[in-house]
Design brief:
The structure is a single chain. The protein is mainly β. It has one domain. A five-stranded antiparallel sheet has the order 1-2-5-4-3, with no helix packed on it. About 10% of the residues are buried.
């Protein structure tokens, strides 16, 4: 997984796979998903990421029981 944040535009891109994008869909006005031919999610784009609290990401570390 690769995450990129474009501060000037407040856009967060989470790249989950290197598969080619076959289709894209909007969840709402600021959340967009890209899918591979097999239906897996390739990329998630969040507009106004910091403004809606999606960035900065909170990283939690824990131990498995």
């Amino acid at each position: 997984m690769r995450t990129t944040y474009y501060e000037e535009d407040d856009i967060l891109v989470m790249h989950l796979s290197d598969k080619p994008i076959a289709r894209e869909a909007s969840q709402d006005w600021n959340t967009h998903f890209s899918y591979a031919e097999d239906g897996t999610v390739v990329e998630v784009v969040v507009l106004d990421a910091a403004a809606i609290g999606a960035f900065p990401l909170e990283v939690l570390h824990g131990q498995a029981a």
